[in-house]
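It would be a great kindness if you could assist me with a short task in structural biology. I am sending you one protein, given as its amino acid sequence and as whole-number tokens for its backbone shapes. I would ask you to consider whether the tokens describe a fold that such a sequence might reasonably adopt. The full record is reproduced below for your convenience.
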Amino acid sequence: MTRIFRHDPIDFSAMPPAIKGLLIANIIGFAIAKLVGPAMINDMFGLVPQHLIFDRWVWQPITYLFIHGNIWHLIFNLFALWMFGMPVEAQWGEKEFLKFYFLCGLGAAATSTMLGVHSTIPVIGASGPIYGLLVAFAMLYPDAVVYLYFLIPVKAAHMAILFGALEFFAGATGATPGIARFAHLGGMVTGYFYIRWWWVWKLNAKSFAKGLFRREEEEIPVRPAARRSTKATAVMEEKREDPMAEVDRILDKILASGLESLTDAERELMKRYSDRNKPS
């Protein structure tokens, strides 16, 4: 089913804390750079690979995310943060969202540094995490419709692939020397592998842990309580088994790694659930 996302008019007071905090931090960083002087701020707090590697200016892989070259650079990134960040944070929660955001920023910084260890040109802007959020949105809602440049309807998954290809070819050919294309690509790749591998590992670990607990519960002998009503017994059995929790877990696993990742037992459970809920 194709999903179309509609944002309400931008209301700063109604934004979730993580989005709001990042918007404020980026605006403050831009204002300080303009007041103090972009050249000094960019060299000190932008990402300069030579300073990071040889001078150990270890704060730069974080601070560069809050500095932008011009007002349009800032506006584009903040708009994309609001557009893709809102549904992603709503899905993940504040803590997981911020972890993902800064992880993509570090991935973009690592990519730029490895490709130019001796470079003295500052890399600035939140585009690395923004492109990571684009990947996250596309993986969470691949069939969601996004209007590219406000005119062209395209599925989120196709848009992410298109943007990734454009960034790669623009970076490889040097078509836009003033833009850190491989930093954008580094944010996208980091976001993809984090979701594809780390989340799958977490799902499998949770599934394994639940299986251990379930086996332990089965091994503990339970003495039936005297004169327990049939209704109370049914309620307790329903709470103990909680079949919908297992269905929800399997659905999350399908979302993260596809149908091919399911075990035979999980496929059988979903088949029974589907058959039980078919209209008569």
